[in-house]
C-alpha cells in the first residue's frame, strides 16, 4: 500500500458539522495509519474568526468520539492551521495562497493541492473560480477538488455548476462525492459480481426476477430542514445514492478495474433507465411524508413540525419506485428502490431475488418453492447471505430455505466515517472509481427531473405515513401489483 502521500488539504467549511464529524476524523485516521508520514498540512478555511490554537482545540474535541486510536492526535494537530476565509472576497484567496506556499515549504509538500468544498452548494462555483483567479490552482504538483452534494438541483443547475467548476479544473481533477460509494459493502458489489464464477452467468433477466434496494433511516431531518425542504428524498437520496447502487448492480463487466472503464459501464446503465411516461411515473413512484409517531419507544414529531420546515410542506421524506432498465440484460426485471426518513429501522440492504425453478421436484405446488436470494447488507450489519433450498432433517422429505451468511467482522465505528476515509484516500491517490462522473450525474438528473415534473402537477396528500413505520401503504402495493413483496420488512 502506498505510503508517504504528500498534500496540502484545504477544507472550505472547516467548522461545519461534516468536517468535525467525518472529514477530520477520516484524515486523522489516515495520518495515524502512517499514509502521510509527516508530509501533510491541512488548512481549515471557515467564516468564523478563530486562531489556529482555538481551531485545533475544537478539532481535538470533535474527533474524540469518532476515532479508535487517539495516540497520535497531538502530532496530527501540529499539521492543522486555521484561515478565516470570505469565499466571495478575492483578497482572502491571496492570503490563502501565501499561507499555502508557506506550509508547502515548511512541510515539503511538492505542490500537491487538494481542495475540499464542504460548504453550502451556493458557493461551489465562486470558490472554484476564485481558486483559479488567485493562482491557487497554478501549482507544480496535482490539483484536485472534492465537491460535496448536492451537485445541482436539477439538470440545468447541475450543468451550470459543472461548467463553472470545469473552468478551473479538468474532469479528472474533479471528485464528486457520493459517500455511499465509500461504503465497504457497496464497494463489495463489484467484487461479488465479477470475482465469482457463480453469479455472473445468472446475472440477467433469464435468472433474476427482481432487485430490491432499501435505504431506510430512523432519523428525521434533524437540523437540516432548510436544505431538505428544497430537496426532499428524491433528490437527497434517489438521484445519487440509490441510482448509484442500481448502476453498480446492473452494469456490464468493465474491461478493467480502471476508473474510466468502470464509470463508462455505469454511465451506460443510467443512460438506459427506461424513459417512462407521466402516467407510469404516477403509477411507479410513490412519495410520502412522515407524521408524528413513535421510534424506539420515544414520541417524535411530524415532518411539518420540524424546525425550518413549512407547516404545509409538500416535501417528500419517503420515495419508493419501480425502475426499469431498457437493455438486453435487464429488460423485464424491475429494480424496486425505497428510501425514507423516520422509518422503523436503520437499514441499507440490497436483495437480489432469483427466478424460481420452473418445476421443483420436491414441492406439490411449485409456488411453495422458496426463491433463491442474494442479500447484501450494507448497514448497520455488513455482510451478505445466500438463501438456498435444502432438506429439512426429518422423515417427511420437506424442504426448507437455508441462509448461508457471511458477516463482516464487527466494526463498531460509524460506517460513514469509514466511507469518508476510503474516499479521501482515493482522492489522494487520484483514483476516481468511487466518484461520480459528470455523465452519470447528467443521466441521473434527466431521470429525476421527469419524476419531479410529474409530481409538481399534483398536491400530495401529506402526511401519509406515521413515523416508526415502513412508509405509506402504496409502497407495499407497488410490489403487490407485481405479485411480490419487500423482502426487507424492516
Ligand atoms: C445523505 C443525505 O446523503 O445521506 C441524508 O443527505 C441522509 O439526508 C444520509 O441521512 C444517509 O446516509 P447513511 O450513510 O447514514 O445511510
Automatic annotation (TrEMBL):
It catalyses: D-glucose 6-phosphate + NADP(+) = 6-phospho-D-glucono-1,5-lactone + NADPH + H(+). Pathway: Carbohydrate degradation; pentose phosphate pathway; D-ribulose 5-phosphate from D-glucose 6-phosphate (oxidative stage): step 1/3. Gene3D superfamilies: Dihydrodipicolinate Reductase, domain 2, NAD(P)-binding Rossmann-like Domain. InterPro entries: G6P_DH, G6P_DH_AS, G6P_DH_C, G6P_DH_NAD-bd, NAD(P)-bd_dom_sf. GO terms for molecular function: glucose-6-phosphate dehydrogenase activity; NADP binding. HAMAP family: G6PD. This is Glucose-6-phosphate 1-dehydrogenase. It comes from Staphylococcus piscifermentans. The lineage of its organism: Bacteria, Bacillati, Bacillota, Bacilli, Bacillales.
